[in-house]
């Protein structure tokens, strides 16, 4: 990428639409390498948990949020109440609220493309724009997002196909989701500052699993949020006292 | 097997909430950005939510079959070890953890 700062360097030429689309697709490759295999696992799990095959593409269009979709397979197979599903969706996807602060949506001009770009603002899209120093354009951004959805939906369909070819159900494959959340937890707790949240979450879930085992996830999530709100007001009070 | 109306309701719930979370902040950026509570929650939520999801999915494995307690423990250890030793490559850690779990519940 050219840096526009020194006066000797001519300003970079304005990219043509097809160049923008090509660079958007190029931007999608690294994350796509992870999304496609995970999509296959997702498709396999949908079929193996006894849900109709069309749930995989339907969820990937309705929700388009990888880890939540994987979580929902088990919840749907168990006919989890809609209230629990709504709360889980709200809390698991709550992080997206903060993506909007830096996501370069203002570059997208057409209202339809803008709407799609918001709808498809997944973790990977946010992460690539946040980490990249390249010159973004609306077309480049949206083509990257479309590519992401193609990998994810395509992976899911490939997984459905593979499941149809398998002679029998592979027991234990659903552990992929457990393993994914274990690694995501490890990645979220990279510094010691995250340890209190980890402990509060663990305590909330253990208490919920002991006290109300039938609705442990719902109760655990609610208790955790209550604890965090209490923590916020405690920290604020301490701040006032110290001031 | 869940009925179609149930699946369609789930799809509607997931679509509405996910899109709202992604779109509303663009419409109402300023108050959200100023709120100290929202900022603190954003900072504190991920680690706790993820550990709850990990614990919840692991618990379902054991609740479904109590004999899976040992495989679950071993496979979690494999996942964690692979994640730290393999340089936090999610696909590798998840792959090795799942492989060891599938092997343990089918072969042992």
Automatic annotation (TrEMBL), chain A:
Gene source species: Arthrobacter cavernae
Gene Ontology BP annotations: L-valine transmembrane transport
Localization annotation: Cell membrane
Entry protein name: AzlC family ABC transporter permease
Domain of life: Bacteria
Family: Belongs to the AzlC family.
One Pfam entry name: AzlC
UniProt keyword annotation of Chaperone present: no
GO-annotated cellular components: plasma membrane
Spans traversing the lipid bilayer: 29-51, 71-92, 146-166, 201-229
Keywords: Cell membrane, Membrane, Transmembrane, Transmembrane helix, Transport
Membrane-related topology note: Multi-pass membrane protein
Signal sequence extent: none
Predominant localisation class: membrane
UniProtKB/TrEMBL annotation, chain B:
Source taxon at top rank: Bacteria
Transmembrane regions: 6-29, 41-60, 66-86
Keyword list, A-Z: Membrane, Transmembrane, Transmembrane helix
This protein's record includes keyword Membrane: yes
Pfam families cross-referenced by the UniProt entry: AzlD
InterPro entries in UniProt: Brnchd-chn_aa_trnsp_AzlD
Protein name according to UniProt: AzlD domain-containing protein
Organism of provenance: Arthrobacter cavernae
């Amino acid at each position: 990428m050219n840096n526009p700062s020194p006066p000797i360097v001519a300003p970079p030429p304005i990219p043509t639409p097809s160049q923008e689309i090509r660079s958007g697709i190029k931007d999608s490759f690294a994350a796509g390498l992870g999304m496609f295999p995970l999509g296959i696992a997702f498709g396999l799990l949908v079929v193996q948990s006894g849900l109709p095959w069309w749930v995989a593409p339907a969820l990937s269009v309705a929700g388009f949020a990888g880890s939540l979709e994987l979580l929902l397979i088990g919840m749907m197979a168990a006919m989890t109440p809609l209230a629990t599903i709504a709360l889980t969706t709200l809390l698991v996807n709550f992080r997206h609220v903060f993506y909007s602060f830096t996501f370069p949506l203002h570059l997208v001009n057409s209202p339809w493309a803008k709407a799609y770009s918001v709808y498809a603002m997944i973790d990977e899209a946010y992460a690539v724009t946040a980490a990249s120093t390249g010159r973004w354009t609306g077309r480049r951004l949206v083509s990257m997002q479309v590519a992401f959805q193609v990998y994810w939906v395509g992976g899911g369909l490939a997984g459905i196909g593979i499941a149809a070819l398998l002679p029998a159900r592979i027991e234990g494959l659903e552990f992929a989701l457990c393993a994914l959340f274990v690694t995501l937890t490890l990645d979220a707790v990279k510094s010691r500052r995250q340890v209190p949240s980890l402990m509060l979450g663990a305590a909330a879930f253990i208490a919920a699993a002991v006290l109300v085992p039938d609705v442990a996830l719902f109760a655990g999530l609610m208790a955790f949020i209550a604890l965090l709100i209490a923590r916020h007001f405690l920290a604020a009070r301490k701040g006032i006292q110290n001031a | 097997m869940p009925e179609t109306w149930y699946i369609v309701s789930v799809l509607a719930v997931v679509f509405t909430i996910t899109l709202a979370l992604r779109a509303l902040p663009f419409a109402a950026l300023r108050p959200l950005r100023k709120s100290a509570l929202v900022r603190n929650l954003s900072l504190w939520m991920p680690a706790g939510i993820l550990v709850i999801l990990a614990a919840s999915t692991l618990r379902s494995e054991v609740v479904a079959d109590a004999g899976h307690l040992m495989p679950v423990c071993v496979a979690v250890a494999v996942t964690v070890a692979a994640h730290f030793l393999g340089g936090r490559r999610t696909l590798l850690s998840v792959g090795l953890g799942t492989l060891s779990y599938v092997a343990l519940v089918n072969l042992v």
